[in-house]
Amino acid sequence: MMLKLPGSVDVDDLIQAGMIGLLDAASRYDELRGAQFETYAAQRIRGAMLDELRGADWLPRSMRRDTRRIENAISKLQQKLGRTPTETEIAKEMSVSLTEYQQLLQEARGAQLVYYEDFHNEDEEGFFDRHDYSTDANPLELLQDERFRSALVEAIQRLPERERLLMGMHYEQEMNLREIGEVMGVSESRVCQLHSQAVARLRTILRGH
Question: Taking residues 99-128, what's their average pLDDT?
Answer without folding.
Answer: 62
